[in-house]
Design brief:
This is Potassium transporter 4. It comes from Citrus sinensis (Sweet orange). By secondary structure, the protein is an alpha/beta fold. Helices cover 52% and strands 10% of the residues. It has 27 helices and nine strands. The strands form two sheets. Strands 5-3-4-2-1-8-9 form a seven-stranded mixed β-sheet, sandwiched between helices.
């Protein structure tokens, strides 16, 4: 499924058309199978969990109704009011890091200085009404000025993201004879992820729909049959009576009542009329609505929860309360005992299937969060894998707490509302969530420490990776090769320029990286056309193909040196469609002609670095400035690199192609017969086409990052041991960028940071 862009929900009538509404209804249907599986199964265990321990001594009709009142208002204030009506309005494709990226677009909070003014011109960059963005508040300037405060903000965001990831690390706390089957189910669920959210959602949605309808019907029956007066417990006065009756034990019970919004994956095994129910926990529920926003739209999630999930859950909890108020001895297995006997087994089967689906929400959220962290430079390049471990409501409540804090900043810096309004929002929800969080901390000795430990480990990994990446980038930034030195070398750069194109990969978005001097001094020859390629992530969810490429010139025209910045959003998928080289050549050709026709893009001979232009790359063949012929045949990658390799490498490539035939497009460029074309432009375009025909080589630096000898012990430990370990055991840049190994040239360099 194509995820939504990072634009705010449609507000004008033209966007609320029938096609748009029908699409959102379809997404609302699919979200039921991915987002709400865990939350919808919470009625299986909330009452039994809340009344475990000492609270069983306080069982009475008043405490049952008070517990329902707490559940009702918790569901109403946190999932419905906070998330559905407020947090989802900050629609940047969901998750803690999405809020952070939204903040970084409206304030200088990012610690990695790789953003450019051109990034702010992206169609998905601006959020809401940009008119209010004029000026800067003292609070904003204060945060931007102090790097330590921005570091604290990043750590808070990392901790929130790590809690979600740690929450996806589940270990079944079940008996030995059920362990193997539980592992099979979990492995099966994770294995389904490669089919994509769309197919998983279509598969699971009918199960959750049948389940919600079933529990709604059972709840309505129990209200009518056992105690219609339970409706009066909606009044918050029953909450006061509840705590007056239960005291400290009532506060402790909040850890169980919390599960109505966090969710817990219940075991598929239940023996009627016995106490051998087995279960294991997964805290996700409400936060999954926001973390999974990238897979759906805010409107679709609102529709599904407000008009279907929320009413079904409220009626079910109300029905259980009505049943328990007249059957206090049935609390340990309240849900199953409250089911009318004629429909018990059908509901039991649906409950079993729904419990299996329940863990899908946190799995989807985990994969989404890991990808966002990697795209924003806070997680190493690893394949998505998830282990299994214990988790409790503490994890999800902590994430909600952090989301509330970030939303307060969003209200100030993104929505440009009063700081007093943000403070009111912060105090109101922190007061509610703080009470639940304090009760959840009681679970730490009983196993709640596991998600804390896991989250701490993940946070250390993320912070060290981000710290090392930032230090390496700053080294490149402060040790750039002087363009005046390059100009002094002349167009030949003091070496032989051979036919072909050299793509020099660097993380720098401006200037020439220090490693280029190593290339010039260590390689006997260089390609006639050089392109500095920077593949970077920008703090937006998606970058459209029309805006992906930024093309500019390095040094004057005779040097044949260009810069290409390829921009991706943190939700974009970098597909290896085999067309990157053709898109790059076409984009450079577009830039050469644009530069000649439009003076604002021209780079004079004395310019050290020309301006950059956005070049559309949606369709290579759609441009008419070059004559393009396209063939499809079974070829390897050797057709694009022959002249820049030795006979030995060419023979190795031919053997590889025979064993690995692929279907690729062979694109050839030709100049049109235009007598009015500037001779200098024609010559440059001809050099580009001939270089492309000669072959393309990928040139990268194989960097080793080490701390300076004068560095502190902590810095040396982080860089020399931890960061180096992560770099050695993660996928290299060439693999992540899908660079053909046979056409890769690497030059080593040590970075002392």
């Amino acid at each position: 499924m194509e995820p939504e862009s990072g634009l705010p929900p449609p507000r004008n009538p033209s966007q609320l058309s029938w096609p748009n509404l029908s699409r959102n209804l379809l997404l609302a249907y699919q979200s039921l199978g991915v987002v709400y599986g865990d939350l919808s199964t919470s009625p299986l265990y909330v009452y039994s969990s809340a009344f475990s321990g000492r609270l069983d001594e306080k069982e009475s009709e008043e405490t049952i109704l008070g517990a329902f009142s707490l559940i009702f208002w918790t569901l109403t204030l946190i999932p419905l009011l906070k998330y559905i009506f407020i947090v989802l309005s900050a629609d940047d494709n969901g998750g803690t890091f999405a809020l952070y990226s939204l903040l970084c677009r409206h304030a200088k909070f990012s610690l990695l200085p790789n953003q450019q003014a051109a990034d702010e011109e992206l169609s998905t960059y601006k959020y809401g009404n940009a008119v209010h963005a004029v000026g800067s508040s003292p609070f904003k300037r204060f945060l931007e000025k102090h790097k330590k405060l921005r570091t604290v903000l990043l750590v808070v965001v990392l901790f929130g993201a790590c809690m979600v990831i740690g929450d996806g690390v589940l270990t079944p706390a079940i008996s030995g004879e059920l362990l193997i089957l539980a592992c099979v189910i979990l492995v099966g669920l994770f294995a389904l992820q490669h089919f994509g959210t769309h197919k998983v959602a279509v598969m699971f949605a009918p199960i959750i729909i049948i389940w919600l309808i079933s529990i709604f019907a059972v709840g309505l029956y129990n209200v009518i049959h056992w105690n219609p007066k339970v409706i009066s417990a909606i009044s918050p006065l029953y909450i006061i009576k509840y705590f007056r009756e239960t005291g400290k034990t009532g506060w402790i019970s909040l850890g169980g009542l919390l599960l109505c919004i966090t969710g817990r994956y219940y075991s598929i095994f239940y023996v009627p009329n016995s106490i051998t129910t087995e279960h294991f926990w997964v805290s996700s529920g409400t936060e999954a609505m926001f973390a999974d926003l990238g897979h759906f739209t805010a409107l679709s999630i609102r529709l599904a929860f407000t008009f279907f999930v929320y009413p079904c859950l409220v009626v079910q909890y109300m029905g259980q309360a009505a049943y328990l108020s007249k059957n206090l001895d049935k609390i340990p297995n309240s849900f199953y005992d409250s089911i009318p006997e004629p429909v018990f087994w059908p509901v039991f089967v649906v409950a079993t299937l729904s419990a299996i689906v329940g863990s899908q929400a946190i799995i989807t959220a985990t994969f989404s969060i890991v990808k966002q962290c990697h795209s924003l430079g806070c997680f190493p390049r690893v394949k998505d894998t998830t282990l299994i471990g214990n988790a409790y409501g503490l994890a999800c409540m902590t994430v909600m707490f952090i989301t509330t804090f970030l939303m307060a900043l969003i209200i100030i810096f993104v929505w440009y509302k009063s700081i007093f309004l943000a403070g009111a929002f912060l105090l109101f929800f922190l007061a509610i969530e703080g009470v639940y969080l304090s009760a959840a901390f009681i679970k730490v000795p009983q196993g709640g420490w596991v998600p804390l430990v896991l989250s701490s480990v993940f946070m250390v990994v993320m912070y060290i990776w981000h710290y090392g990446t930032r230090k390496k980038y700053n080294f490149d930034l402060h040790n750039k090769v002087s363009l005046r030195w390059l100009l002094g070398l002349g167009p030949s750069l003091g070496i032989v320029r051979v036919p072909g194109i050299g793509l020099i990969y660097s993380e720098l978005a401006t200037g020439v990286p220090a490693i280029f001097s190593h290339f010039v001094t260590n390689l006997p020859a260089f390609h006639k056309v050089l392109v500095f390629v920077c593949v970077k992530s920008v703090p937006v969810p998606y970058v459209s193909p029309e805006e992906r490429f930024l093309i500019g010139r390095v040094c004057p025209r005779p040097y044949r040196m260009y810069r290409c910045i390829v921009r991706y959003g943190y939700k974009d998928v970098q597909r290896d469609d085999g067309d990157f080289e053709n898109q790059l050549i076409q984009s450079i050709a577009e830039f050469i002609q644009m530069e000649a026709e439009e003076p604002q893009f021209s780079s004079s001979e004395s310019s050290l670095d020309g301006r950059m232009a956005v070049i559309s790359t949606r369709n290579v063949e759609s441009n008419t400035n070059l004559i393009i012929s396209v063939q499809e045949e079974d070829i390897g990658s050797s057709s694009s690199i022959q002249s820049s390799k030795s006979l030995t490498l060419q023979s190795l490539q031919s053997v590889f192609d025979e064993d690995n035939p692929v279907r690729r497009r062979q694109v050839r460029f030709q100049l049109p017969s235009d007598p009015g074309m500037d001779p200098a432009v024609r010559e440059e375009l001809m050099d580009l086409i001939q270089a492309k025909e000669a072959g393309i080589a990928y040139i990268m630096g194989h960097s080793y990052v080490k701390a300076r000898r004068s560095s502190s012990f902590v810095k040396r430990f982080m860089i020399d041991i931890l960061y180096s370990f992560l770099r050695k055991n993660c996928r290299g840049p060439s693999v992540a960028l899908n660079i053909p190994h046979i056409s890769l040239i690497e030059v080593g360099m040590i970075y002392y940071v």
